Amino acid sequence: MKPLSNLTKGSDPIHVREQVAEKLNVSNGQLYKIQRIYENEEKISDTIKQLDTQKISVHMAYQQLLQIEHKEQPTKIEPPKSYHGLMLFSHCNYETLVQHTNVDWKEKFLG
């Protein structure tokens, strides 16, 4: 087995993100948002075009990414808490609830 390197002995830890953010003249949080935006380029390509032409801010582009990610999450509908026997299903998604109870909860309670 190869011995450990002595290069970092006695030196301060290196915080690459902080150094990159400083070089780009942005905060760590801003750098995080930029990274997340470009990692998800296929989801928000139009947003990135607007960002690249400075029509929108990094914050606005990040908010649009969060909205898209939120829409991608399955919708969860909580059964009525008073209905005995369904408490086991209080954290499942709608399709699972219907599958296990054979009740269309949207139709039953939302009419």
What does this protein look like?
It is a single chain. The protein is an all-alpha fold. The chain is flat.
Short descriptors:
single chain, 111 residues, mainly alpha, 2 domains, 6 helices, flat
The count of helical stretches stands at 6
Low-confidence stretches: 83-89
- Main sheet attributes: strand count, strand direction, barrel closure: none
Question: How many discrete structural domains?
Answer: 2
Question: Per DSSP, what share of the residues sits in E-state strands of 2 or more residues?
Answer: under 5%
Q: What class would the helix/strand composition place it in? A: mainly alpha
Question: Secondary-structure map with pairings?
Answer:
Layout: H1 16-24, H2 28-39, H3 45-52, H4 58-72, H5 94-101, H6 105-110
Helix pairs in contact: 2-4
Give a quick rundown of the structure.
With 111 residues, the chain is mainly alpha-helical. The chain is built from six helices and no strands. It folds into two domains: 16-72, no CATH class; 74-111, no CATH class.
